[in-house]
Design goal:
Keywords: Hydrolase, Metal-binding, Metalloprotease, Protease, Zinc. This is Isoaspartyl dipeptidase. Its EC number is 3.4.19.-. With 391 residues, the chain is an alpha/beta fold. It has helices at residues 83-87, 107-120, 142-148, 170-187, 205-213, 230-241, 254-258, 264-273, 310-322, 326-331, 335-340, and strands at residues 2-11, 15-24, 27-32, 44-48, 52-56, 58-63, 91-96, 123-128, 152-160, 192-197, 221-224, 246-249, 281-284, 290-294, 300-305, 357-361, 367-372, 375-379, 382-383. Strands 1, 2, 3, 4, 5, 16, 17, 18 and 19 form a nine-stranded mixed sheet that branches. It has a six-stranded parallel sheet with strand order 6-7-8-9-10-11. Helix 1 links the parallel strand 6 and strand 7 (91-96). Helix 3 (142-148) runs parallel beside helix 4 (170-187).
Length: 391
Amino acid sequence: MLKLIKNGEVYNPKYLGKKDILITGDKIGYISDNIEVPKDFVDMEVIDATNKLVVPGFIDSHVHICGGGGEGSFKTRTPEIQLTDITTGGVTTVVGVLGTDGTTRTMSNLIAKARGLEEEGVTCFVHTGSYQIPVRTVTGNIQDDIILIDKIIGTGEISLADHRSSQPTAAELARLTAEARVGGILSGKAGMVNAHMGDSKDTTKLILEVVEKYDIPITQFLPTHMNRNPYLFEDAIKYAKKGGYVDFTTSTTEKFLEEGEVKCGEALKRMIDNGVSNKNITFTSDGQGSLPDFDEDGVYIGLQVGQVRSLYEAVQEAIKDVGVSIEDSLRVITSNPADILKLNSKGYLKEEKDADVVLLDKDSLDIDTVIAMGKVMIKNKEIKVKGTFEN
């Protein structure tokens, strides 16, 4: 069935004005000022986007789709994500990762979950590995994983500057990154190293040492959680000014914020105000990941679970409360991750791109309708498609 979105104000994420969008199958067929519905043509669904903003489907490139955590023993392993946990947040593309636990959470499980989510209607990729170095891969080699397995686009999340890290040397991190880079070059993928940044005062020191000593560009890394404390955030500004990418985590807790974590909307504005290119910034949710709390001696004292819906909530807050423009705010969850991760059919509303579309109420900016690969997942705030095991 063809789908025609009419009368909406389109951000691709650049503002295009009022446009109509024709979806043909799973692709965007045409974008034009006015597309007429042919008379007596019954096999077309018309979606009225009057008083709506029409934007690209959101990309969440750091989600623990199989669950994460376990820092408080086996009972604290967080559950697998469900389809509507993703779609109700406006997300149509996710990148699955493992985290602290690379033993009971495995790459085969991660890939199977990714394929399951695709069968249910959203696009899903994964990174190979977890916190640990050496990286536990599928084929035995990072480069081979990226080249030979379609779903694998990079490696991570590799833990750095954290008490849970494998405490790698610069040489070890350089070798790992080189494998990912060459794997990406040979397969047309990004081959990024998704680096978990912890609370250590070393911050990005190890990454910068690799960049300075070895023939590896700073853009081969995507360090995440860069807003977790004031000194890491200040380092994020300096790091981005060197040309590096930085990712801010939207899932948080009141305690984290009280202890100095920088809210993502505020972080985005401060980065832009400090002259950082908006194209170097992304948001991710850390969805289904554990948000563990440790005391000053590193002893676990509790956790909460990350939520994918926090991704767009942070963007909404950046627009409405902090004053970042709609275009700049949307880029960090649409075109920026698409460009950085080489997801070439994602992140934009353009002809021949994948038909991943979100409609927002113009006044409230709340999510109204979500279309993933041409399939209506949510319409008028009503869930139309649920996951296999969702009631």
